[in-house]
TrEMBL record:
InterPro entries: 6-hairpin_glycosidase_sf, 6hp_glycosidase-like_sf, Ssp411, Ssp411-like_TRX, Thioredoxin-like_sf. Residues 17-178 form the Spermatogenesis-associated protein 20-like TRX domain. It comes from the Eukaryota. This is Spermatogenesis-associated protein 20-like TRX domain-containing protein.
Length: 755
């Protein structure tokens, strides 16, 4: 469990204190003592802008954002800049992780107008919140022919004074155009025949064309670990294999394997502490931007689990453990909640006021020698550690010599080759490496830590709940006696299920209102003011479905069904199809968007289609038809996107194909719970990779379960009753309205599912 000290702002006196000091968000608290007179997003700020008749300066970022820190130091801590902002504007600071709805409106505007975006996001608004102009990071002074922040402030002030009407009219027009473009309606009730299959094929081809055969990944530097791309390639590969196109299937799987292996060996992977950094600045996955985000960890653990279930190679199961053990060690709170992120920047030593990117994670050759003694040479050769520093593999790795003399650990040779070179068995070599990493971890733990953003976000917890739940059973496929080395703990995989259940329980207790059936978006020292958004519902429902299917209580499945009902009520466009990203109840949010882009995180609409397909295979026919209808209408909204730019929506391509599959496979397990036999059968049900499979498990002796299934799906309740035996667990595999004869041992079930 993570040990962390809650951030406080009262431990020393400050020259300046603004309204952000009363907020809970770590990002807002970081700015609570700027000379800028910041307001949080809300009516108080809007009213002040109207009263003074001045524009609003809106700054959006997040607590682990490197360039947000830079702009704070250069501009928001500067008295001269603060005077301009305080005299001419009302300044509002927003944490994008706390208010993704606000961020979406103005990021969409900046991207549409200027062709790019990012954080910090800097936007000027009229008092009625219409955007006037915007950008991202601005240096404080004019440089390289580009205007600095002070110049921008003066120009906006002059434009407001001299041509306000034109500015406001232009902003209003931009919002109207964006609103129309981003809330499109379905032309048909469902996608035309063949579109899902063509979109899946097109996306796979486009990704294959962008594949880096040397270093893995899709596209060039900077390289982001976009797990939805891996998910699509795995899904498409499986589809090719099932239809007899084994060469194409192997080619797609090979791209995934190369990518995941290069990432695991690269510096984007924290070899000493586990988990993955945000992205690599170079093409070889070596030098990262060092922040660690929960949404990456949850998704990456899942794709490593998927590849393990296909290849049975312990390398991939070890990597999923590496990520999940990092989360358990560093990112889980006292009540099971899972925190959001760790910063890239930290002080090099205690007492330093200036933070540096990567300071916590990088090493000099001398430091490694001091800590590791006799094993230093072996470790240095294995991880490419050099006295001059090792950030030299690409011209993009360290263009400004920030890491001169420093090393970001990377594995460039195979373990077996290195063990042979040092004349020892592979197992002994791995033992030494693990011991070395443990020693470095202990030394590193004494360094000033990067800031921990201990905000709890429902959507990101949903992604992590999924990976912990899936690991609990999929990892049972590891060979008996498999050895693990630090930072992998090698614990019983069932412990991962406990982590998933505790995280789900925390959300239900602290971020769910049982009277209204609604979620709140985030928690820190209490629930945030922001309501739950589409991603919160969709990602949590997905996690709860995994919790149930991987062996936890039917209680979670019942909650998932309730949340889906509430999601439909709050976000579904009942006329035009698809889900909006917000409930549409906040007048300060000028855009209500139907998001489709599967980026660093999947889109709420893509995840929702998969949820609806899964739910449809669990409930009785009338409810099932409703779920499928909503999924069909949703996909019809994005018909053009699927046809023209499939690569932007890889998970939606998978979802569309899943919905088009004529009959989803159902694995029904019946028997007494809990028992070792039941766990073994569950593990067998999940042993192979198959996205078009639903696992249902029922103990007819359990009153809660029996009652749930009698109400939710009478046929399932009857099947369980008719196949229940007091002394054994049986499994039936059902598809196309027929079921196999029951089997009662794991090997038979695995064999049945492999056909």
């Amino acid at each position: 469990m993570a040990e962390h000290t809650p951030e406080t702002t009262s431990s020393k006196t400050h020259k300046h204190t603004n309204r952000l000091a009363a907020e809970h968000s770590p990002y807002l608290l970081q700015h609570a003592h700027n000379p800028v007179d910041w307001y949080p997003w809300g009516e108080e700020a809007f009213a002040e802008a109207r009263r003074r008749d001045v524009p609003i300066f809106l700054s959006i970022g997040y607590s682990t954002c490197h360039w947000c820190h830079v702009m704070e130091v250069e501009s928001f801590e500067c008295e001269d800049v603060a005077k301009l902002l305080n005299d001419w504007f009302v300044s509002i600071k927003v944490d994008r992780e706390e208010r993704p709805d606000v961020d979406k409106v103005y990021m969409t505007y900046v991207q549409a107008l200027y062709g790019g975006g990012g954080w910090p996001l800097s936007v000027f608004l009229s008092p009625d919140l219409k955007p006037l102009m915007g950008g991202t990071y601005f240096p404080p002074d004019d440089k390289y022919g580009r205007p600095g922040f002070k110049t921008i402030l003066r120009k906006v002030k002059e434009a407001w004074d001299s041509k306000r009407d034109v500015l406001v009219q232009s902003g209003s027009f931009a919002i109207e155009q964006l609103s129309e473009a981003l809330s499109t309606s379905a032309r048909l009730d469902k996608l035309p025949d063949g579109v899902p299959q063509k979109a899946l094929k097109l996306c796979a081809e486009q990704l294959a064309d962008s594949f880096d055969s040397k270093y893995g990944g899709f596209g060039s530097a900077p390289k982001f670990p976009r797990p939805v791309e891996v998910q699509l390639m795995l899904y498409h590969s499986k589809k090719l294999k099932v239809t007899g196109k084994s060469d194409g299937a192997k080619e797609g799987l090979s791209m995934v394997i190369i990518t995941l292996e290069c990432m695991a060996r690269g510096g984007i992977h924290d070899h000493v502490g586990g988990g993955f950094h945000r992205y690599s600045v170079d093409e070889c996955w070596h030098v990262p931007h060092f922040e660690k985000m929960l949404y990456d960890q949850g998704q990456l653990a899942n794709v490593y689990l998927d590849v393990f279930s296909i290849t049975k190679d312990v390398f991939y199961s070890t990597m999923s453990r590496d990520i999940l053990d990092y989360l358990r060690r560093e990112m889980i709170g006292p009540n099971g909640e899972i925190f959001s992120a760790e910063d890239a920047d930290s002080a090099e030593s205690e007492g330093d006021t200036r933070k540096k990117e990567g300071a916590f994670y990088i090493w000099t050759s001398h430091e490694v020698e001091d800590v590791l003694g006799e094993h230093a040479n072996l470790f240095k050769e294995h991880y490419y550690v050099k006295p001059s520093g090792n950030c030299d593999l690409s011209r993009m790795s360290d263009p400004h010599n920030e890491f001169k003399g420093k090393n970001v650990l990377i594995e460039r040779n195979s373990t077996s080759a290195m063990a042979s070179k040092f004349g020892m068995p592979v197992e002994k070599y791995l033992d030494i490496l693990g011991m070395c990493r443990q020693k470095l971890f202990d030394v590193r733990s004494k360094r000033p830590r990067p800031h921990l953003d201990d905000k709890v976000i429902v959507s990101w917890n949903g992604l992590a709940i999924s990976s912990f739940a899936r690991a609990s059973k999929i990892l049972k496929g590891e060979p008996e006696g498999a050895k693990f080395y630090f930072p992998v703990a090698g614990t019983n995989s069932e412990e991962y299920m406990e982590v998933a259940e505790r995280a789900a329980s925390f959300i239900r207790k602290n971020l769910y209102n049982q009277q209204t059936g609604r979620l709140q978006h985030s928690f820190r020292n209490g629930a945030s003011k922001a309501p739950g958004f589409l991603d919160d519902y969709a990602f949590l429902i997905s996690g709860l479905l995994d919790l149930y299917e991987l062996g936890s209580s039917v209680f979670w499945l019942a909650w998932a069904i309730e949340l889906q009902h509430k999601q439909d009520e709050l976000f579904l466009d009942k006329e035009g199809g698809g889900y909006f990203n917000t409930p549409g109840e906040d007048p300060s949010i000028l855009l209500r968007v139907k998001e489709d882009h599967d980026g660093a995180e999947p889109s709420g609409n893509s995840v929702s289609v998969i949820n609806l397909v899964r739910l449809a295979s669990l409930v009785s026919s009338s409810k099932s038809d409703n779920y499928r209808h909503n999924a069909e209408r949703l996909l019809a909204v994005f018909e053009k996107r699927l046809k023209d730019t499939a690569m932007a929506v890889p998970l939606m391509c998978c979802a569309a194909d899943m919905l088009a599959v004529p009959s989803r496979k159902q694995v029904v397990l019946v028997g007494r719970k809990p028992s070792a036999e039941f766990d073994s059968m569950l593990a067998a049900a999940h042993a192979s990779y198959d996205s078009n499979r639903t696992v249902i498990h029922i103990d007819p002796n359990d009153d809660e379960e029996r009652g749930f299934w009698e109400e939710t799906n009478e046929n399932m309740a009857l099947m369980a009753k008719n196949n229940f035996g007091a002394d054994k667990v049986v499994a039936l595999v059902c598809q196309n309205f027929t079921c196999s004869p029951p089997v009662d041992n794991p090997k038979s079930l695995e064999s049945l599912l492999s056909k």
